[in-house]
Amino acid sequence: MRAFRPKRPVAAERSADPVACREAALGLLERTRRTRSDLSRRLDERGFDPTAIEAVLDRLSELKLVDDVEYARAFLAGRWGRRAAGWRRLEQDLRARGVASEDIARGRALLVEQTGAVDEVTAARKVVEQAARRYQSLDPRLRRQRLYALLTRRGFDSDVIAEALHNDR
User: Fold this and answer.
1) DSSP notation for the chain
2) What is the pTM of this model?
């Protein structure tokens, strides 16, 4: 959880100034890629006028400096290889960052288009292999239940889980 930071007041004449708002937005984008909703929230916290924020974000979107579809694609590409998780979990993480469902779907389609088919069953089996030692001494039925619960927490769908656990009886 982030520490509470009080709103940094912007002078009244600057709060509606689109140039100052744009400069603040570009300063935030300098450090890292951000979603439209994250930028909007941060600019609002700095005291900028909502109409100035919307105008600036619309312009930055036109220039492709703020692109939630590309953000979703990059996020999915980075997370998919690092830690095995199902699409559902990754989509939840993106929604929590303020990315719309349709942008997530387009980002996922772009990722699949660029990298080829992404096999969720293989990722689920990787999780099962990693947890195998931890659960090897358990009764087979309890082992299967624990693995099912683990895969569910990681965001895999039930059909993917069933296929991944098919040989684990």
Assistant:
1) -PPP----PPPHHHHT-HHHHHHHHHHHHHHS---HHHHHHHHHHTT--HHHHHHHHHHHHHTTSS-HHHHHHHHHHHHHHHS---HHHHHHHHHHTT--HHHHHHHHHHHHHHH----HHHHHHHHHHHHHHHHTTS-HHHHHHHHHHHHHHTT--HHHHHHHTTT--
2) 0.74
